[in-house]
Amino acid sequence: MDKKRQHRLEARADIIKAMGHPTRLFIVEELSRGERCVCELRDMVDADVSTVSKHLSVLKRAGLVEDDKRGLQVYYRLCCPCILKFFGCIETVLKENARRQQELVG
Fold it and tell me: Which of these, 26, 20, 37, lies nearest to 75 by C-alpha position?
């Protein structure tokens, strides 16, 4: 594999890793509905601000979200709504796996 392709695959893996936590998946889903301030997300995931901020930082480094500071609040929004197509694909895989499992059992 050439270095350019290797770099591209590593970049893809970094984005997938950034989404590899249930809380971050929840945050991405919530941001798909519209921007949210950190305090709203904190309440939704029932975690402290520093934990939510760390999750948002991971998503921001991966290029999935961007922020906007307004006064004392920081608002986040989804940069690339197309990531939701990936979620749709995952749901298809889950349904197919459940169907296969049901065939084995029944």
Answer: 37
Q: Name which of 22, 25, 4 is nearest 87 in CA terms.
A: 25
CA neighbor of 57 nearest in space, from 70, 32, 74, 45: 74
Q: Which amino acid is at 80?
A: C
**Token pair for 70:** 């307004």
pTM confidence score: 0.88
In angstroms, the Cα distances linking 21 to 13, 18, 29 are 14, 7, 12
Report yes or no: 75 and 36 within 8 Å, Cβ to Cβ: yes
Q: Which residues pair with 65 in a beta bridge?
A: 78
pLDDT digits (tens, 9 = 90+) for 45-71: 999 999 999 999 999 999 999 999 999
Name all domains of the chain by residue range, CATH numbers in brackets. Answer: 3-80 (1.10.10.10)
